[in-house]
Design brief:
There is one protein chain. By secondary structure, this protein is an alpha/beta fold. It folds into 2 domains: about 170 residues, 3-Layer(aba) Sandwich (Alpha/beta knot), CATH 3.40.1280; about 70 residues, Orthogonal Bundle (Trp Operon Repressor, Chain A). It is about 35% helix and about 20% strand. It is built from 9 helices and 9 strands. Helix 4 packs across helix 6. The chain is elongated, with a radius of gyration of 24 Å. The two termini are about 45 Å apart. Bound molecules: S-adenosylmethionine. S-adenosylmethionine (SAM) binds next to strand 5.
Length: about 260
């Protein structure tokens, strides 16, 4: 069964471009993922179909009302039941949530999916969170105007892990974080790049930039070792805490440790 995402949003139109380009388009066409968009306003009552109101206690901004959210979630539960889908956990996007990691993305990619709640305004009434939200997820320490970009981010990251979505199945296995380290540098043609010196518009040839020779050697073991060492070097320089975590998980070999001990940062 495809991973299913039920997205509660006031702006379903923001999801359309994502469904019509690139690998994510193919994933939707082949039904590798099943994304259902729920317009929250359809679950609001009254002539104006209000989904927000002023906060109790005063202060700026508006708060998303609990009742339309509950009605929308009930409709999603009924739809999931009708489709014999399991009861999916409810994920709310919030700056106060746990930062999204590749590890969490991988877990979600292997699971049945989730209900994704996109906040707007000052956020949503706490009573909905207390009663219905299983997990709060943050995209980082900054504030966006809504949860739609976080939802798109999560769906994209999960989608590219679905079998058959990427042309080369091995490609995500060497991505950053999949083995806990950052990715190594990549090179393609031309083998030697004849650059121009920066700021020189005379047309005179500048320094050549060559591809690291090991990549042209055809020696697979040497190439694999070089790539591993580049991963270790970049990760140690930029995200040393990821090296510590890999070490704690017992994922660094003696050869890795030797390379790291020789490294001047
Ligand atoms: C303007 S924000 C509300 C910010 C909230 N008053 C605060 O200070 O934490 C509106 C909505 O955008 C989403 N959002 C904003 N920044 C986010 C982040 N870093 N990670 C995940 N969701 C975020 C949340 O769904 C949030 O309810």
């Amino acid at each position: 069964m495809a991973v299913r995402f039920d997205v509660i949003t006031l702006f379903p139109e923001l999801f359309a471009p994502f469904q019509s380009v690139g690998v994510t388009r193919r994933a939707f066409e082949t039904k590798a993922v099943d994304v259902r968009l729920w317009q929250l306003r359809e679950f609001a009552e009254g002539v104006y179909r209000r989904v927000d109101d002023r906060p109790f206690g005063g202060g700026p901004g508006m708060v998303m009302l609990v009742e339309p959210l509950v009605r929308c979630l009930s409709a999603i539960r009924a739809d999931q039941q009708a489709a014999a889908a399991p009861r999916l956990p409810v994920v709310l996007f919030s700056p106060a949530g746990k930062p999204l990691t590749q590890q969490r993305v991988q877990q979600l990619a292997e699971g049945p999916g989730a209900v994704l709640v996109c906040g707007r305004y000052e956020g949503i009434d706490q009573r909905f969170i207390d009663a219905h939200v299983d997990e709060e997820v943050s995209l980082g320490d900054y504030v966006l105007s809504g949860g739609e970009l976080p939802a798109l981010t999560l769906i994209d990251a999960v989608t590219r892990l679905q079998p058959g979505v990427l042309h080369d199945a091995a490609s995500h296995e060497q991505d950053s974080f999949s083995d806990g380290l950052l990715d190594c540098p990549h090179y393609s043609r031309p083998e030697v790049l004849q650059g121009l010196a920066e700021g020189d518009d005379s047309g005179a040839p500048g320094a050549e930039a060559a591809v690291p020779p090991v990549l042209m050697s055809g020696h697979h073991a040497h190439i694999a070792r070089w790539r591993r060492e580049q991963q270790l070097r970049i990760t140690a320089q930029r995200r040393p805490e990821l090296i510590d975590a890999a070490r704690a998980r017992g994922e660094l070999s003696k050869q890795d440790e030797h390379f790291l001990s020789q490294l001047t940062l």
